[in-house]
Write a structure and sequence with these properties.
This protein is of the alpha/beta class. The chain has a domain of 164 residues: Undecaprenyl pyrophosphate synthetase. It is 42% helix and 17% strand. It contains 7 helices and 8 strands; from the N terminus they run βββααβαβαβααββα. It has a 6-stranded parallel β-sheet with strand order 5-6-4-3-7-8, with helices on both faces. It has a two-stranded antiparallel ribbon with strand order 1-2. It is globular and about 55 Å long. 31% of the residues are buried. The model has no long low-confidence stretch (mean pLDDT 98). Bound molecules: 3-methylbut-3-enyl trihydrogen diphosphate (2 copies) and magnesium ion. The site of one 3-methylbut-3-enyl trihydrogen diphosphate (IPE) has 10 residues, from α1.
Length: 242
Amino acid sequence: MRIYGQDIDEKKLPAHVGIIMDGNGRWAKARGLARIAGHEEGFKSLDRLLNANKEIGVRVITIYAFSTENWKRPPAEVQFLMGMAKKMIVDYLDTLLRNDIRFVMTGSFEGISADLKEMILGAMERSKHCKSYTLNAAFNYGGRKEILDAVRRIAADCSGGKLDVSKIDEKKITEYLYSPELPDPDLIIRTSGELRLSNFLLWEGAYSELWFTKKYWPDFHPRDFCKAIADFQKRKRRFGKV
Ligand code: IPE
Ligand code: IPE
Ligand code: MG
């Protein structure tokens, strides 16, 4: 199909795209605005993408919304981001339901307020019948924390006699991660010009193709998303083979 100026083979779409939505603060700063204005604009960018994706057709999108390291930001910004998460669930869940998008979260509830946790679980419950798309929010997420949590639960199950050490393999470890039912991301996009993963999907992204743009997240357009997919489709993935 020809879409947003790109030729995309709809039979070879990435099954799962991860997005490190970075640069909200710098977008705002460049306009003389407070960082939080950048987060608000970043939300509009996400809405634009999900809307366009109804035509593009990527089944699973994971957005990096809040990392385990983001707690180190000024308390007012952390509070604002937690408030935005609540607002997104209150104001946006109906849009997700209308578009048949299932909402899931990958991350830890440690440190998350009881009311926000309840809202997230409620949104997951209310959207679990949606089959067309999955929006996975990496929220209070860190790749190392995810692996650490898995290791602890595996160790507990081993010492409790529920799991035999000889049964621990890569597949078993995946089962103990936050979202074992999702495919690994085929493609990871990062905006804002930074060339790093910042603790995003470390286990799952072992063989992801990486795509970077200098654009700040609020300026990211479905055109850029389609360019990333078109570039992805030209890559030769070898998975260690020749
Ligand atoms: C990404 O934008 C959004 C979150 C981390 C929540 P930033 O807030 O990191 O923006 P920059 O990188 O400071 O410009
Ligand atoms: C990564 O962005 C986290 C999110 C996009 C939520 P950061 O802005 O926190 O990453 P660093 O600090 O530049 O590595
Ligand atoms: Mg950043």
